[in-house]
């Protein structure tokens, strides 16, 4: 019986050494996870501080532009800590998604743009959506006449270029 027990003990000691290494690996993984989590927390806190500072600066600028003179505004902005570079703040603003109001404001702009190939003016909404312009029958005929003339001029210029080449 002693022999069996001793064998068991040996086998358990062998397995315990392997389990020790696996336990160490688990501990290392947990530590890494903890470090990553803490890093994320600190980044989040820094972002929040940046946002708060930016908000404070905006408030100060608003109040200074309304009530204070330029000299007072300079002293107020100089007294604030400037540990965050301005280019970083601008870059983060550019990377941020648009709010609904910003998007609607951008889409509400309608421009009249000349299409050089056809000679027609097109209505372009926001970032590039082409709108159909509603015009009277006479205006429609006039637009088509101009477009036909410009098409003819373009065709002739192409034919002349081919003859010379």
Automatic annotation (TrEMBL):
Localization recorded for this chain is: Nucleus speckle; Nucleus, Nucleolus
Indicate, by first and last residue, each region the UniProt record lists as having compositional bias (Basic and acidic residues): 40-55
Would you tell me the protein name for this molecule? ADP-ribosylation factor-like protein 6-interacting protein 4
Source species, domain of life: Eukaryota
Q: Does the keyword Nucleus apply?
A: yes
Q: Would you identify the family this protein belongs to, as annotated?
A: Belongs to the ARL6IP4 family.
**Region ranges (Disordered):** 1-76
GO CC, any one term: nucleolus
What does the organism's lineage look like at the top?
Eukaryota, Metazoa, Ecdysozoa, Arthropoda, Hexapoda
Tell me the GO BP annotations in alphabetical order.
Answer: mRNA processing; RNA splicing
Ribonucleoprotein as UniProt keyword: no
Q: Which organism is it from?
A: Diatraea saccharalis (sugarcane borer)
The UniProt keyword set, sorted, is: mRNA processing, mRNA splicing, Nucleus
